[in-house]
Amino acid sequence: MDIQPLIPKIEKHLGTPIRSIEKVNSGASSRRYFLLHLDGETYFPRDEVLIMLVPLADIQILLDYMNVDYYLRRMHIPTPRIFEVWEEAGIIFLEYVRWPRLDMFIHAHPEQMEHALRQTIQFLQHMQQNCLWESHCPAFHRRFDEAKYQFEFRFHVREQLLERFFGVHLSANLEQAFEAFAQEISQTLDVKRPTFVHRDFQSSNMFFESQSADHPLKIIDFQDARHGLPVYDLVSILWDSYIPVPDSLRATLTREFYDYLRDTGIDWSYDQYLQYVDYTIIQRKLHDAGAFAYNYHRFKSRHFLQFIPNTLDMVIQVLEKYPRFAPLTELFAHLNQEKSA
């Protein structure tokens, strides 16, 4: 989306001229972010404001963001402040957070990765404990259930990743194996719990202030929040496509999160917990790879294609632990090696 045609309309709406505009990283979605530097008096507390621009065809994204943000702030979960919602233009005016994104912080300070991730997981635990069921929050009207997982296997994995990106049409035997694979994982992960799930709890959607002892994080991109499996957000951050988390650190933090879940009353065995983690890695990272491919097909941006090989490597590493998934392991390994060559 090009913001230039909207500038006169925005200036008229705000009643002040715009001095300059900076494009801000928007991630693999239809939303676009721009930082406006305003010239003159404004009713915002600063002369700079971030706008989230949403295509009018996707206006539900804007409404869900607004409603989930309202819920999170009442639950004392830090988010960038919403200054104004201009629904007819598909715009939200937001506080511009000067903190670095978590992925940027970790790449700049790799020696502080463990500290930053521990802070992030503490934040996640705080969010899960505080974000209790409420009828007005969209997250509690949609669950990570079998139908949702199956949709993502069908759309993101089969259509966008395999067919459109890799150009693969499954043979009858592989199609049968894929359907059984998707069904087993989808049914296993369909855990009926009221746990709030951010849905995209990854480093690019967090702002991190290492010097803040009380509230070191602010989160964004929560408009698709749901409820369901408590390990989904854990997997999203520890198996994040944008930061190179060492396997040893993943194992340590995964074990510690199990102890936290036990303290909250979840009585899974450790083996059952690890299977939930493994299956979530497979599902989440295949979804991510498909989302990167879809972003390329929809917006013709090659930026996120660079993350597909590493994302699939994470999937393959886990799939190798499950011999019954061997046909899919071989398929993804072959395609990833062929594409990377």
Report on this model:
The protein is globular, with a radius of gyration of 21 Å. The chain is of the alpha+beta class and 341 residues long. It has three domains: 4-94, Phosphorylase Kinase, domain 1, CATH 3.30.200; 99-141 and 197-239 and 248-264, Aminoglycoside phosphotransferase (APH), C-terminal lobe (Aminoglycoside 3'-phosphotransferase, Chain: A, domain 2); 145-190 and 268-341. 49% of the residues lie in helices and 12% in strands. α4 packs antiparallel against α7 (232-238) and α5 (146-165) packs across α9. A hairpin with a 7-residue loop joins β1 and β2.
What is the topology?
Blueprint: H1 7-14, E1 18-24, E2 32-38, E3 48-53, H2 59-74, E4 82-86, E5 91-94, H3 102-108, H4 113-130, H5 146-165, H6 172-189, E6 195-197, E7 206-208, E8 217-219, E9 226-228, H7 232-238, H8 247-263, H9 270-299, H10 308-319, H11 326-340
Antiparallel strand pairs: 1-2, 2-3, 3-5, 4-5, 6-9, 7-8
Helix pairs in contact: 4-7, 4-8, 5-6, 5-9, 6-9, 9-10, 10-11
